[in-house]
Amino acid sequence: MSRLLYLLAFLTLLGVGRSEYEATWASLDTRPLPAWYDGAKVGIFIHWGVFSVPSFGSEWFWENWQGSHIKSYVDFMEKNYRPNFTYPDFAPLFTAEFYNPEQWASVFNASGARYVVLTSKHHEGFTNWPSRYSWNWNSMDVGPKRDLLGDLAKAIRSTTPDIHFGLYHSMFEWFHPLYLDDKANKYATNNFVVSKTMPELYELVNTYHPEVIWSDGDWEAPDWYWNSTVFLAWLFNDSPVKDTVVANDRWGSGIPCHHGSYYTCSDRYNPGVLQPHKWENCMTLDKGSWGYRREAVLSDYLTIHDLITTLAETISCGGNLLINVGPTHDGRIPAIMEERLRQLGSWLDINGEAVYDTTPWQHQNDTVTPGVWYTSKDDLVYTIVLNWPENDELVLGALVPTASTNVTMLGYPKDALQMGSVRASNITVSFPPMSDVSSQWAWVLVWSGVTPA
Question: What is the DSSP letter of 438?
């Protein structure tokens, strides 16, 4: 063997010759999606920070309240706070005295979620970890006086090893003087990126090893300003989580829904049709806010039927569902949010076979009966029925039976359901008495030996 071949073999053993992703979207887009993420289907989003203190209206307002002229917010401040009260004055009140990360992890595990994404820093720049790049504006120096992020990462990994830990991070900070200076100069300089945003991201990954990077706050500037592709190339090539990490699509203006391990496109994105690229529906249990709202009433929250409906719609079209909760300033997950998560978990305990590790079927929803969605796994087809059929008879138009067709129901102890005759290309299935079925809110039929209509 020549000296050149020996050298090439040696470099290959060292890993020098391995294929790496370049800092271009064309190269980064070739990276395969880690299988764990596609199979997970259900995640928990956590919006928690200084904005949880006022907990009135949306967290967006409280991070930008000085620039707002909305009367209701002005009245709220004048009635409840002293004159000249500023946003930083909320930080010492962000106390987290009831924060129990082990209890949070227990709730998330009971929900059936397979990954968790915690807000590490939102648009106002307060970091929920003791970042060296956010002096005196972090959870160790002000307010809780603890590493909120690190405590949750430890709790999840030690008590719920099946749950993957991830982090949300806002690129910009609305009031940071360096960012405002860069913006005023039309992003001709990137002093904020070099000194704040990117150092924070590298610090987060190297310290906490998140397997999801949920970027946000990117839209005011192009991706080259943020150095997005440079960071992602490092993340996928050399970071401690290079083989398992996934990153979303919010890395600069014009990038969402075009580049990323998975697409979020816009908040509460739910297209209702099959997408060619992996995507995620990030949504909220509180219809009106990502953060906790003290003024919310019962009707402001999704019901468990609403939540399961959104889940069925999402996974049938190839997406994951990221369900947001907004804890209180003192560290409690509101009871109604905990109830929804535990209800979802009890439903998944029975019907998770139709959710986890499934793929979209040829039909996403039924062609005859509304409120019926499909998933598949190997040779099985799952029918998620959101409403109990009238007269216990379900008519389906998307399936064609064969001589070997069989249908069962998850949560029903008997082997098979009675299938009626095929009429006008429709299959009729007789449901058992509801009292004999374990599932309470939606019902899953499992088909074998069928083809798509």
Answer: S
33: DSSP letter: P
What pLDDT sits at residue 424? 64
List of residues 6+ apart from 35 with CB closer than 8 A: none
Q: What is the pLDDT of residue 450?
A: 94
Contact 227, 215 (CB under 8 A): no
Task: Give the separation between CA 343 and CA 112, rounded to whole angstroms.
Answer: 10
For the chain, list residues with pLDDT below 70: 1-19, 58-73, 421-424
- DSSP at 160: -
Q: Transcribe 368-424 into DSSP letters.
A: SSSSEEEEEETTEEEEEESSPPGGGEEEESSEEEEEEEEEEETT--SS--EE---BT
User: Which candidate, 75, 156, 91, places its Cα nearest to that of 126?
Assistant: 91
Contact 385, 316 (CB under 8 A): no
pLDDT tens digits for range 65-96: 554 445 666 777 788 888 888 889 999 999 99
- For tokens 């019902």, name the residue: 443
Instruction: Confirm if 268 and 281 have CB atoms less than 8 A apart.
Output: yes
CB atoms within 10 A of CB 177: 10
Tell me, what's the pLDDT at 12? 43
Q: For position 58, what pLDDT does the model report?
A: 67
| Cβ-based neighbours of 12, under 8 Å, separated by 6 or more | 18
**Reported pTM:** 0.93
Residue 416, burial from CB neighbour count under 10 angstroms (0-12, 13-18, 19+): exposed
Residue 360's Cα: distance from chain center in Å? 19
Rg (alpha carbons) of the chain, rounded to whole number: 24
Residue 129 is classified by DSSP as S
Half-sphere exposure of 182 (CA within 13 A, CB side): 23
Identify the pLDDT of residue 19: 60
DSSP state of 48: -
Question: 191 vs 43, 223, 227, CA distance in Å?
Answer: 34, 15, 12
Element (H, E) at 179: helix 177-184
Buried b (16+ CB within 10 A) or exposed e, 134-147: beebbbbebbbebb
